[in-house]
Amino acid sequence: MLVGYARTSTLEQKHGLEAQREALRAAGCSKVFAEQVSSIATREALNEAMSFCREGDTFVVAKLDRLARSVRHLGELIDSFTERDIGLRVLDLGLDTMTATGKLMLNVLGSVAQFEREMMLERQREGIVKARLAGKYKGRHPSARLNAIEINRLLSEGKTKKEIALRLQISERSVYRYAQSANQKQ
């Protein structure tokens, strides 16, 4: 059985979602799961679609970026499919992991994506070093440390960390981190 999965990141992308559904139906998918949610959010329809698949089924997506949020995530999904003897078909790439060529293409694409990511990170590190040498890169401002006196005062008044974060316009996590480091020093 061909099981389709369609996703767009925002609710405004209705036409994109419908285009994916049509492509999946045209490819012969008997069942299509769809959702409009960011790739980093919990994706209920993806989980349902994967649970729905049985041995011998093929999981179909219109585009690879609609399925996986990273090379690592793609690898995890492929491992899950392989363990359960489920194929993967990506329509816009003409990729089908049920064939030897499809498996090869997927590995090559994954390797190229990983290489590109590593090259991007290397260029980023080099740029940061150059900027530091030129005195232009100072890093992220330590928002909680800059507000230490005010955080201490508000904590002593019994304010919650969430209230403090909102009042000082810093992340709640920064307030927690500061409070934890202040407790360790005592």
Your description of this structure?
The protein is α/β, with parallel strands linked by helices and 186 residues long. The chain has two domains: 2-111, Resolvase, N-terminal catalytic domain (Rossmann fold, 3-Layer(aba) Sandwich), CATH 3.40.50; 143-185. Helices cover 56% and strands 12% of the residues. It is built from eight helices and five strands. The chain has helices at 14-26, 44-52, 71-83, 100-133, 143-146, 148-156, 161-168, 172-185; strands at residues 2-8, 31-36, 58-61, 87-90, 95-96. Strands 2-1-3-4-5 form a five-stranded mixed β-sheet, with helices on both faces. Strand 3, helix 3 and strand 4 (87-90) form a beta-alpha-beta unit. The longest helix has 34 residues, at 100-133. It is elongated. The N and C termini lie far apart (62 Å). The mean pLDDT is 87.
